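Standup notes
- DV: blocked on the single-chain target, sequence here:
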Amino acid sequence: MKRKEIVRGLVRYLKPHLCLFILACLCALVVVAGQLLAPFFAGKAIDCILSSAEGGILWEELKLHLIAVGTSALLATVFQWILALLSNRIAYGVLSALRKDAFRKVEKLPLKYIDNRPYGDVASVIVSDAEAVCDGLLLGFTQLFTGILTIVGVLGVMLAVRWEIALVVFCITPVSFFVARFIAKRTYKTYRAQAEARADETAFADEMIGNLKVVKAFCREEKNAEIFDEKNEVLRKTSLHAVFFSSTTNPSTRFINALVYAAVVLAGGFLVISTAGMGAPFTVGSLTTFLQYANQYTKPFNEISEVVAEFQNALACAGRILALIAEEEEPSDEGNEALGRAQGAVKADNVAFSYTPEKELIKHFDLDVEPGMRVAIVGPTGCGKTTLIGLLMRFYDVDEGAIYVDGHDIRKLTRASLRENIGMVLQETWLKEATVRENLTMGRPDCTEEEMIEAAKAAKAHSFIMRLERGYDTVLGQEGVLSEGQKQLLCIARVMLCRPPMLILDEATSNIDTRTEKLVQDAFAALMKGRTSFIVAHRLSTVQNADLILVMKDGKVIERGTHRELLSRGGFYETLYRSQFSRP
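- DV (later): unblocked, structure below
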């Protein structure tokens, strides 16, 4: 995304906080006014003291000026504190909104977006990049806005009091802007490269740590360490470049600030000497005031230069998170009809689908399933079995043809109503970090205790649940609490509790021992009775009782029939079956 688009995107997130933003601006005005008034009254106080050479110290005026100095400083301090509170509230409000929108966007994105990216990269955008936006753009508001107001205010006062000195300062000012602009262009590019390198390293570390068992099993520790070192070196170099360019802004502006101070001293000294004894002299107190103004004028340049470096980093990170939020969502369900409780009739009419246009996967697929039928899908790895299930669940939409449930084109049904009618148990188990009870009742939070226990017993999970430290109230998520097989039994129980009219079992018993599998298969048999069921399996022993077996190869159904029919034909299914059950 271009920087203008990024800034416009961030402004949209600031709009809900417009009232707080206006209050913050008013506070900034009071802060700057207090900081400008304090030197003015301090200069007047010095003139009151120096007047002692002519007629004694003007105590009454000195007292009033000192009170004015203290009041101005106090006001500036109090409103600076209020400004910080308001800025923080705005900052973390925007941060919360960015993360909320980014996370919700991820949930609405098509699965192909997640399939093509490391999970760690997406997590890095939501967490790390959003934090950088908050720190760099919004928490720097105090320094940036007050700094600009101070620069404008000081120049205005100088012009009103002594335009000659203001002109000197004004002539040197463009040099600071030129230096800041020159460095800012380069720091944006380097910080963008740093954000990308950081996300790449985070994604790799997340992937390797999450699959550490596999890494150790294949003795990939050293190789992964080498890959990590390479990514870490890229991050080191990009970080050094970013820090180098950002660190040049401060000394550069400090040098220019020193020039400004020297110019004010020189021009002010000449004015004090040349206007002495005149009607409107430029006094020592006035020179002191202008020197303080010179410091106030140059200080924001130092602060802004520091903010600019963070600003470039924040823009780079904001570009990534706003690009995520701007990603195209799944086609909307708006206007689609809701599917009630399905009967379970499923039909596929000349379905074609591929993940990428150049590589066909499923083509010319037809299927007609009556309610209550058990359909098994078998075939070699990569033939399209799981993809077919993804199409039925509308995780992906077909490229050609159509899939119908009870005569309804599923593309014209709401995804929620379709998926509520389908219970799905996958080979890969997923349980959230919560109690066993919360995991089991995820699909039916309003179920009774008796229904939950009945489902757990049917899935052969009740006995090991009761052996846990706190039974159904045991918190899951800790490594080693449950085996993979036990996790899968809980996933099966979760679906059994919902009792949907259609079932999808994708290698649902792959992590269970043979004895328990037999018991669970019996439970499944009872659960599938009267329900349309799709069973994806590599172990053909689990599909022999299916009403229809689809044998897939290279995205096509090459054989279909019952177990006995397929064996009698002596085709590809018979070859698969013999390879699993024939004795050497």
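- Follow-up: The chain is about 65% helix and 10% strand.
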